[in-house]
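User: Sequence for Arsenate reductase ArsC below. Tokens please.
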Amino acid sequence: MKPKVAFICVHNSCRSQMAETLGKLFGSKVFQSYSAGTERKPEINKDAVKTIKDLYNIDMEETQYSKLLEDIPKVDIVIKMGCNVVCPFLPSKHIEDWGLEDPTGKSNEEFIKTAKAIEEKIKDLAYRIEKNEINLNDR
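Assistant: Structure tokens for Arsenate reductase ArsC:
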């Protein structure tokens, strides 16, 4: 059974959505990807959608939408995208905070930098799960 990973932030409209997409793209052999937040946005950030389409040729709006924490299944790993104020809490066996700046309202370059950082972190996460460096045994 592949572990379930939730990428969470407050609005589930930008970084966590990019992470869900890139998790499916680069980590699907190792884990299942979900994203959610404590608040919903009516749509995914347009700049995030454009960046993922330009870099990876994937249209996030076709399969993803803004979700609340209670909209996703129970997960094994929680990845906080980096919320400076109040980060949502979700029970899990492993939690990390990737501390990524929110690129919302910033330049195209910032969005590309964020997407590339997420890609690297996803590949690293998949590697660490595969190598059993993350303890997912029930405590």
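The chain has one domain: 4-130.
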